[in-house]
């Protein structure tokens, strides 16, 4: 049993999203999959459709990936993929780069056909930055607009909400460590098919 298949599944889903290869992206998800991230919560199939619609509106992001860590137990696997979401955006006439650091947790399951598919994606946000593309350019953001957003994904939420998406303050982030710890316990319990998440706090 190798983690390579799960690693390639996770990387293929991200690559397909960035390249606009939507049929290949859709094939990565199980029929009952769930995706939870800043701007979207729903099924894997709907995530692909909404991603395509987002690109159609000209809202593009790319994902700079680090190697995923993969754990396998039977026909279940967990992969954690550190990444940076990069946006080239316009802020009231000033070109800027927005970078959001997060880690995405993937649940994957192997079907009766022997193929691994994504059962769930959950994002945990770490921090983000917003800088002008042109060195020395003046980039002005109203601090009162930012004050209502959490530090783990402040600029990302601010930008996406300005664009008409809905990003709440309930998402997982390192500024809420207890919720993140509970998420890890739940993921490890799922991997082991353990009904008591508290018993799976560590591997």
List keywords for this structure.
NTF2-like_dom_sf; alpha+beta; seven-stranded mixed sheet; 203 residues; globular; 6 helices; Nuclear transport factor 2 family protein; 31% helix; disordered C terminus; Nuclear Transport Factor 2, Chain: A; SnoaL-like
Describe, in short, the structure shown.
This protein has helices at 4-19, 22-26, 44-56, 143-146, 154-162, 177-192; strands at 29-36, 41-43, 62-65, 69-73, 76-91, 94-110, 116-132. The chain is α+β, with helices and mostly antiparallel strands and 203 residues long.
Write the layout of secondary structure elements.
Elements: H1 4-19, H2 22-26, E1 29-36, E2 41-43, H3 44-56, E3 62-65, E4 69-73, E5 76-91, E6 94-110, E7 116-132, H4 143-146, H5 154-162, H6 177-192
Parallel strand pairs: 1-7
Antiparallel strand pairs: 1-2, 3-5, 4-5, 5-6, 6-7
């Amino acid at each position: 049993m190798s983690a390579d298949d799960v690693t390639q599944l996770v990387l293929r889903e991200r690559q397909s999203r960035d390249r606009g290869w939507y049929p290949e992206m859709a094939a990565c998800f199980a029929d009952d999959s769930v995706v939870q991230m800043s701007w979207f919560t729903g099924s894997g199939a709907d995530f692909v459709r909404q991603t395509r619609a987002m690109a159609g509106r000209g809202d593009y992001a790319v994902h700079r990936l680090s190697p995923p860590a993969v754990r396998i137990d039977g026909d279940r696997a967990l992969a954690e993929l550190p990444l940076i979401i990069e946006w080239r955006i316009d802020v009231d006439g000033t070109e800027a780069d927005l970078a959001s650091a997060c880690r995405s947790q993937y649940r994957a399951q192997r079907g009766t056909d022997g193929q691994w598919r994504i059962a769930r994606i959950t994002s945990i946000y770490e921090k983000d930055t917003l800088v002008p593309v042109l060195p020395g350019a003046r980039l002005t953001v109203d601090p009162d607009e930012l004050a209502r957003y959490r530090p783990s994904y402040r600029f990302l939420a601010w930008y996406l909400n300005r664009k008409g998406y809905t990003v709440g303050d309930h998402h997982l982030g390192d500024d809420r460590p207890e919720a993140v710890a509970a998420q890890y316990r739940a993921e490890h319990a799922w991997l082991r098919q353990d009904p008591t998440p508290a018993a799976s706090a560590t591997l």
